[in-house]
Amino acid sequence: MYPHVYQTLRVDANNRELFHVIKELLAVETEAGSVAISAEAIAPIPSCFEPVSTDPDNLVWNPITAIRTGEWWKRVDGAMTVHEWKVRNWGTPSPLFDVQSWDENFRSLSFRSVATPATGIVKRISEFFPEPTFSLTWMEHRGEWAGAVSYLDGINVLYEKYRRGTERYVQVVEYFWR
């Protein structure tokens, strides 16, 4: 079983427009009635992946389909399966779930994903909204690892991993366990 990753996305500006775009265009209701953010709405899975079984994560890159659909260039990142593609382009193989509402100033949003933080999704959002800096802080659900990344206009301006016991690690853990 993959670990869950607790995450908080922060925006360095009071941005109601961003909140409404995420809420209206990217938020989807799950079968359980909770809210998730559709990573596919931000970075759609290329059609050059074809199913090899009924499992939606068991899709493989097909060079013939890729050439036929004009998506041959999407293979450049080396992904052979849709799972690999999701991790390389979304940062995580799962949608963002357990989405908590923005704070009262529309500056932070909390959610979870499976296995790894949603760094690719935050990068894509930063490309859509180039002005504010987007910062993502995360912690694995057992507290095994934590980190942070920031993007400005789609460019990575900060990437840190925090070791257990360091001051910043303790701050992150205390934030998520409050």
Short description:
The protein contains six helices and nine strands. Strand 2 and strand 3 form a beta hairpin. It has a five-stranded antiparallel β-sheet with strand order 6-1-7-8-9, with helices on both faces.
Observed structural traits:
single chain; alpha+beta; Alpha-Beta Plaits; 2 domains; 9 strands
Describe this structure in words.
- This protein is α+β, with helices and mostly antiparallel strands and 178 residues long.
- The chain folds into two domains: 4-38 and 95-176, Alpha-Beta Plaits; 49-90, no CATH class.
- The protein has six helices and nine strands, in the order E-H-E-E-H-E-E-H-H-E-H-E-E-E-H.
- The protein has helices at 16-26, 39-42, 63-69, 82-90, 119-128, 167-176; strands at residues 4-11, 27-29, 35-37, 49-51, 59-61, 108-114, 133-140, 146-152, 155-162.
- The chain has a five-stranded antiparallel sheet with strand order 6-1-7-8-9, with helices on both faces. It has a two-stranded antiparallel sheet with strand order 2-3. Strands 4-5 form a two-stranded antiparallel sheet.
- A hairpin with a 5-residue loop joins strand 7 (133-140) and strand 8 (146-152).
- Helix 4 packs across helix 5 (119-128).
- The longest helix is centred in the first third of the chain and has 11 residues, at 16-26.
- It is globular.
- The protein starts with a strand and ends with a helix.
- 29% of the residues are buried.
- The model is unreliable at 72-76 (pLDDT under 50).
